């Protein structure tokens, strides 16, 4: 029996329930103020190329932590076992999505390397605290996401379009949002575009490539952030024999406070 | 004989020439990296009300320094004599512009208070260093300025519309410009509006209320900053018996490095 309705504020308790298979839903609203992360796991040479891809593309792929080969823990982010601690995974073979299991212990190998990447939840919390509307949250929808005509910097076989998320808001809020998000380099940082969607290759803003349709009010200006779905687009391009990611919205919940995304985490360890 | 063609990089030398009446032109491009300031001088009760107006409206009126009543020096900004050290002044009586002298020693009174306010030159230098186009500078024109439907916070008789300056640029540059200018609270700080001019009451962006027509390129987004002309608009509303300001573009050149506008100047004195 799962118990996904009531908010679970302790990240340790939440991960324990996930590990036991009692929590398999989206993690938004759970884990209190804990930092949540996008997750990518790759083997051998694929992992080396992807690490270079992240370092070349820090806006869409802000690296929070990289695991040691074959080690499913990420001690700098908490008492984590990546074989069990994400509520739902995605398994990709040769760039094709082949399954969405709730545990990947049977797929773990001794050359697998994990990558935890910052996520927009951190800056959305900061926007909400500043009184800036986050319309998809207010509407209980997923954030709208779009493939753009902006290219990532290739590394090995990893390349592809930058995927962006949209948050529409009044212009004065957009200016404040830019100032706030500049302080969150580990949560995609400042936006990558503002205003005319066509300038970055988005033909119909009302039809996103991922997520739900946007709620755009009169007087709103569209603001676009680099998005953590970008690595999944790069996986479909690179076609590694095996890749494992989190399923959208089903994030890795860490023990790090969300506010830590405001600066580089180097040397920061949870209490 | 004036000698305004060659750039004078030393602020002390520039002020000496201004004091001697040998330099009466605009100060842009002169004084090296020295901070330039808007200047307002008022008497008695008018000065007290204007000080409250500045404190209530820090975006258009960022206070660098306030003089002691009757004292024409501003020691925190340099070896300055405000009766002579601005290349051209404006004299306002009952809110009407009545003259543009190059010296105001004969108008100085023992209850006159001076206000030095931050100026956009500081952040324009920072934008240029970041490779962001400042189109009116490139075209050798004045920045376009507009009265808006945004109201300042009144203080005593001082009130009126916020005046904004426009810099149009590509969206990615606009995002970076917002991040940069956020760091310059003493140079009007972050923009106050971006995108649709009609939202802040600007009907025709090609016909500014002050300055020259804008150079807007395809793909540019308009970005609007609070402007140091706002206090002059407030003077025409308040109609003080006597007010003295700098003439547009003919700024007070200080001994403070321009970079000091990046933080509050409290306690900072020139060497």
Q: Any overview of this molecule?
A:
The structure is a homodimer of 271-residue chains. With 271 residues, chain A is α+β, with helices and mostly antiparallel strands. The first copy, chain A, has 2 domains: 11-119 and 239-262, PSTPO5379-like; 121-230, PSTPO5379-like fold, CATH 3.30.2040.10. Chain A is built from 6 helices and 11 strands. Chain A has helices spanning 11-19, 44-56, 121-129, 135-138, 171-181, 230-238, and strands spanning 34-43, 63-66, 89-93, 96-99, 112-118, 145-151, 161-170, 193-194, 220-226, 243-246, 252-257. In chain A, strands 1, 2, 3, 4, 5, 10 and 11 form a 7-stranded antiparallel beta sheet that branches. A 4-stranded antiparallel beta sheet of chain A has the order 6-7-9-8. In chain A, a hairpin with a 2-residue loop joins strand 3 (89-93) and strand 4 (96-99). The longest helix of chain A has 13 residues, at 44-56. Mean pLDDT of chain A is 91; it is low at 264-271. Chain A binds chain B through residues 171-172, 174-176, 178-179, 182, 190-196, 199, 219, 221, and chain B through 171-172, 174-176, 178-179, 182, 190-196, 199, 219, 221.
